[in-house]
Amino acid sequence: MKNADLSVALPNQATLTNSIHLPALKYTSGNRTWYAATLEYSVLGKLIQTSAVKKKNQKIIGKEIRNRFLDNAHKNEIIQYIKDEPEFTLPAITLVSYDSLDFRPYQSPDGKELDTGSGISSGILNIPLGYEFECLDGNHRTAAIRDLAYEEPEYIDGSSMLVNIVHENRAKKIRQDFVDVNKNAKSTTASINTLFNTRDKTANIVVDLIENVEWLNDTTERLAASVSKNSKDIYTVNNIRNTVIEIAGFNSQAKADKLTPALQEDSLFELVVRERADIFLSNLKANHFVEYALNFRDQTSQARNQSLILTGTGIIIAARIAGYIFQNFETPDMEKEIKRLFALDWSRENELFIGRVIVNEKVTNSRESIQSTVAALKENLGYQLSDSELKYI
Length: 393
Description:
With 393 residues, the protein is α+β, with helices and mostly antiparallel strands. It is built from 17 helices and 13 strands.
């Protein structure tokens, strides 16, 4: 059957001129009727009602709450993402209509509704001019696209968004839908973000190190947030990321990522960080605990139980001191000092660790315990301590 043979029963002329005609698919999911359609980014904000930013001292009416307040920072992150990534990817938006929708299915010449055979029919949604859907999922995406449409439309020109629409007027059900949509979405781990985020310059350094440094490639846990007790792997992707941040002179335990912006501002600094990483990792490999774990893979868990350097906490401590070395020593002396760092006693029985980062024979990873251990090791190596480090001695 040709497309020209298809027809649709349109509303009367008055309705026709006061409505938007949206090609759509009608389908069933979860015992409710849904409609799938595409909307151009340029009109998205005109048809969808999003929540607002919570104002100071704003009175909240409990029965009217169906979505969280808009987070301006998150909205702006999406705007920046769209501007930075020409081939951006945004998932579909889920919308709620409180009123039943006027859907006119396509018909064959004999007037029968066309069905694909799977319970899905195609047709036209007639949406009254000025009508607004409520956003169930995609609140921040919609607000970001709306702002770009008004202020910088060139970034979204020609793009469309897939929307899924359900007719629902039960406030409690809408709230439950909101919870279900967010509950069923699983956040990606920090390791996955590092491995897959090619726009993140810090992540690119980490991935290159793992792929190009043979022993790291063989012994890095790619997906999990931690190395399991009996694993033959030594570090996680996030451990290596923390290492890169620390040797660059930044604190990996800080909330804000300061390294990535620094790399974006100064392309030469990336070369410096990569060079530091090569020096650090080649000397880390020579540490006798690491060397033992590499030569006797089946004994990795036992070696980890005896040493601090084979833990995520231990490598942060070593990398933070290395960051100090790279910033305070001239090139000829850097590697000599890094060698001294890894020649220290990194066993868990070291008195400098006990009571600081080793408590009740277990490794603690609090900021305080790490900073106090860094101070103790720097003093042991004869380095100058900052005023904030002197309190730990």
